[in-house]
């Protein structure tokens, strides 16, 4: 529940606590992921009132309970920004205008949406209409730019995204692409060329933006070594308005190099990553965990709301080193 001052239970407790331990991993001696101890002097890395969530993480709840109940619960947890993964629910038909009302009623703001490339190819203006109704400033896709993993294939995909970006910009929106690990691989016809570099170098920086999924970028680094995820951001600060903060426990002997876990119990060094972004301007920091409904850190039972709640607490108390 939100108080008259606009502070919900989680935000009030976060501001009052001052200094807390971030994540169960600290007690277990886990790596640096969000599992660092917050200090009274450290800069808050995820500002209270700006924490976001990708609804894909709790898609089972949207299906079972509908947007109204989901938004109420998320607001209580301290989430304030919503990234959509579709506009349907399991409790009946709902319009974009009705979703917007539920957002407003719960003090939530739509900041982005993942849609398929085919959705944009078949109905770009309709997708932009929905984005405007929901009040979001960004819209994009979690699809790889193309399945054609050649240099020419990625150049052609970049041109297609330039078209999407131009249309979005005409409506005051930023069009973005969300990475997985495969985009960091090398071109089939030129093993010296990283596909992500082709996409980045051939898209218009004024109209095509990137949402870095930090977990999948680290998986990409494991599978296709030779880069640091944060260096892409630091070299292209204005192109990364959104980030997925997803944690992983290091498993270097596996293909991916990480197992996805709730935030704060893994080994991705978010204190360093987020700390390096100082001075990059306003960014949307969005929690996501693809498997939140299936796994949980003992002794907790699997439950996507439980993972969302614990992850929010750790994110909102995560501080830098100074």
From TrEMBL:
<keyword id="KW-0413">Isomerase</keyword>
<dbReference type="InterPro" id="IPR036237">
    <property type="entry name" value="Xyl_isomerase-like_sf"/>
</dbReference>
<dbReference type="InterPro" id="IPR006311">
    <property type="entry name" value="TAT_signal"/>
</dbReference>
<keyword id="KW-0732">Signal</keyword>
<dbReference type="InterPro" id="IPR013022">
    <property type="entry name" value="Xyl_isomerase-like_TIM-brl"/>
</dbReference>
<protein>
    <submittedName>
        <fullName>Sugar phosphate isomerase/epimerase</fullName>
    </submittedName>
</protein>
<feature type="domain" description="Xylose isomerase-like TIM barrel">
    <location>
        <begin position="71"/>
        <end position="293"/>
    </location>
</feature>
<keyword id="KW-0119">Carbohydrate metabolism</keyword>
<dbReference type="InterPro" id="IPR050312">
    <property type="entry name" value="IolE/XylAMocC-like"/>
</dbReference>
<feature type="signal peptide">
    <location>
        <begin position="1"/>
        <end position="35"/>
    </location>
</feature>
<dbReference type="GO" id="GO:0016853">
    <property type="term" value="F:isomerase activity"/>
</dbReference>
<dbReference type="Pfam" id="PF01261">
    <property type="entry name" value="AP_endonuc_2"/>
</dbReference>
């Amino acid at each position: 529940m939100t108080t008259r001052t606009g502070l919900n239970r989680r935000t009030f407790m976060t501001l009052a606590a001052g200094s807390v331990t971030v994540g169960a991993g600290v007690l277990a001696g886990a790596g640096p992921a969000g599992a660092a101890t917050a200090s009274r002097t450290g800069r808050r890395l995820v500002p209270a009132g700006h924490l976001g969530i990708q609804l894909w993480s709790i898609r089972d709840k949207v299906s079972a309970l509908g947007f109204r109940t989901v938004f109420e619960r998320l607001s209580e947890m301290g989430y304030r920004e919503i990234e959509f993964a579709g506009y349907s629910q399991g409790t009946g038909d709902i319009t974009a205008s009705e979703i917007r009302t539920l957002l407003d009623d719960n003090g939530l703001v739509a900041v982005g949406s993942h849609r398929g490339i085919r959705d944009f190819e078949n109905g770009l203006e309709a997708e932009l209409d929905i984005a405007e109704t929901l009040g979001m400033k960004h819209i994009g896709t979690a699809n790889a730019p193309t399945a054609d993993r050649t240099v020419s294939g990625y150049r052609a995909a970049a041109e297609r995204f330039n078209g999407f970006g131009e249309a979005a910009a005409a409506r005051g929106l930023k069009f973005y692409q969300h990475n997985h690990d495969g985009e960091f691989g090398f071109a089939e016809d030129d093993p010296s060329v990283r596909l992500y570099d082709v996409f980045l170098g051939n898209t218009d920086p004024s109209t095509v933006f990137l949402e870095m999924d930090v977990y999948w970028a680290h998986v990409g680094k494991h599978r296709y070594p030779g880069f640091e995820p944060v260096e892409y951001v630091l070299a292209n600060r204005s192109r990364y308005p959104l980030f997925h903060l997803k944690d992983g426990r290091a498993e270097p002997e596996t293909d991916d190099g990480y197992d996805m876990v709730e935030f704060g119990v893994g080994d991705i060094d978010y204190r360093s990553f987020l700390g390096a972004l100082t001075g990059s301007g306003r960014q949307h920091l969005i929690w996501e965990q693809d498997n939140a409904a299936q796994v949980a850190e003992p002794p907790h039972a699997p439950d996507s709301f439980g993972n969302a709640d614990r992850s929010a607490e750790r994110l909102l108390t995560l501080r830098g080193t100074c």
